[in-house]
């Protein structure tokens, strides 16, 4: 599975901190092991289910986001680095980890098309329910605490 992650994410090598790089790699390995999707599916499925016939794949979108995040960190360092130190490793790791949960939220239906999995359908209600039952969390308007 490690080889699959390395093929999906050559950008992981941009993370200089070896411990952080390994943590990011392990997160993706675990997500792929638990996902109803195969690693190759990520180069086929759309990055969003909200756009009908979305022509951009999950990995095209994700890798683009990582490149933008790295370039943004470089620009911020160049312009504001003396006052606002930027840890590029953390920025890159965060961009790679963003949306890793979609591996558990998406699946391929019998027709071969991407759809939300049962777990993905349950997720918004689980989050809303946890916000309602956690008194020290301030949720969005309309989620009054019980």
Task: Tag the structure with descriptive keywords.
146 residues; disordered C terminus; two-stranded antiparallel sheet; mainly alpha
Task: Write a compact overview of the structure shown.
By secondary structure, the protein is mainly alpha-helical. It has one domain (2-119).
Blueprint of the fold:
Elements: H1 2-8, H2 18-34, H3 58-80, H4 88-97, H5 102-105, E1 106-108, E2 114-116, H6 118-133
Antiparallel strand pairs: 1-2
Helix pairs in contact: 1-2, 2-4, 3-4
Going by helix content, strand content and strand pairing, the class is mainly alpha
* Total beta strand runs: 2
Number of domains: 1
The shape is globular
**Fraction of residues in helix:** 40-55%
Overview of this structure, please?
The chain is mainly alpha-helical. It has one domain. It is 53% helix and 4% strand. It has six helices and two strands; from the N terminus they run αααααββα. It has helices at residues 2-8, 18-34, 58-80, 88-97, 102-105, 118-133; strands spanning 106-108, 114-116. A two-stranded antiparallel sheet has the order 1-2. Helix 2 runs parallel beside helix 4 (88-97). The protein starts with a helix and ends in a 13-residue tail after the last helix. Mean pLDDT is 87; it is low at 136-146.
């Amino acid at each position: 599975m490690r080889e699959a992650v390395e093929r999906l994410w050559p950008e992981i090598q941009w993370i200089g901190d070896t411990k952080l790089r390994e943590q990011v790699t392990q997160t993706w390995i675990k997500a792929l092991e638990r996902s109803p999707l195969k690693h190759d599916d990520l180069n086929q499925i759309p990055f969003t289910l909200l756009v009908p016939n979305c022509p951009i794949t999950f990995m095209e979108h994700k890798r683009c986001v990582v490149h933008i995040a790295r370039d943004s960190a470089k620009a911020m360092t160049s312009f504001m680095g003396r006052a606002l130190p930027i840890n590029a490793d953390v920025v890159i790791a965060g961009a790679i980890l963003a949306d890793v949960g979609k591996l558990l939220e998406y699946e391929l239906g019998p027709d071969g098309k991407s759809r939300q999995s049962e777990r993905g359908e349950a997720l918004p209600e689980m989050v809303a329910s946890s916000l309602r039952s956690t008194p020290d969390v301030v949720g969005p308007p309309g989620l009054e605490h019980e």
